[in-house]
Amino acid sequence: MVNIIISLIIGALAGWIAGQFMGVQGGLLRNIILGIIGGVVGNFVLGLIGISASNIIGTLIVSVIGACLLIFLGKLLLK
Fold first, then answer.
1. Distance CA 24, CA 17 (A)
2. Does the predicted model carry a pTM greater than 0.70?
């Protein structure tokens, strides 16, 4: 149960940070979803080049990178 709460907090924070970097505004639910999916995408993409996260800070960084990639791809598709 604690892991789920920590994942939601990291997801929300990662989504918010990515939104700030990419100049996109959104609500808490959007940030949580974006951060969690961003974590999956970030782990996959960075895993391809041999990089993995091993702690909370690393997980946050990987999630932010993945969320930024998702925002970037979303912007490309909506043009």
1. 10
2. yes
